[in-house]
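ARCHIVE CARD
Drawer: 12
Card no.: 0347
Subject: one protein chain, sequence and derived structure
Cross-reference: see card 0346
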Amino acid sequence: MSDATALTASCPPSRFELVQRAPGVRLGGIVSRISGYRELAAGHLRQVETASLIVPLIVSFGGPFAIGLGRTPGAGDRVGSFAAGLFAGPVIIDSFGCANCLQIDFTPLGARRFFHMPMTELTDRMVDLGDALGAEGMRFRERLANEPSWDCRFALAERFIEQRVAAAPKPSATVAWAFDRLLATDGRIQVGTLAGKIGWSRKHLVTRFNAEIGLGPKTLARIVRFNRVMALSEGRAGGGWADIAAACGYSDQAHLVRDFHDLAGTTPVAWLAQRANSPG
């Protein structure tokens, strides 16, 4: 569950358990958070996640979720344990009272080191745990399921991640630097300027970003800028959107509203209302 998740539920929040912790220092820059989630009673819970820079791995011990990328999920959209790459749009997640899972939130660069594959293989999709990590991933799930507590599961997950990352090739220092510049400028640096600073052509920069992160730098910059908007809007009652748009580099408020539609699936005011009413 990302920081920009809004929830609506037919069951109160006291009927699910959410345990979160930051990873150890050895996973700094690789994992942003590890969470344990368990539903305690029957009922429908809908989570709506906006576009983010989280690459999640979900290891399920209970019932499946129904997940739609950019749309309401249907009966054929149920998934158990899976990995999901970056997606430039809202994600709608339904559960039904029997979910029980561990979620590992990877950074975009950390995900490349953990999954040992071009990140385009995960972009805009959900990939079954067995397909993403093979037999090793299925054994990992079984070992997690046998642990007696969330703390034990978290510790096992950290050891597993450390082992896979240690066996991965060194990341591209140039891509990492360029990605950090996108974050440092809140997504406002031009792609051409970024390519020029590292001495690459724009085309080569896009190709390398797609392979290492899963999206091109222009789309990533859009998500970074949008997440800055959401951070600035926290605590507001719904006003000041024109000021936020200007502060984040949008041409006008209408431009900001279009990004909300594309990346959150709603309007700025509706998003704030959902956050205010969220039981999470």
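Annotation on reverse: The chain is about 40% helix and 20% strand. The first helix runs from residue 108 to 115.
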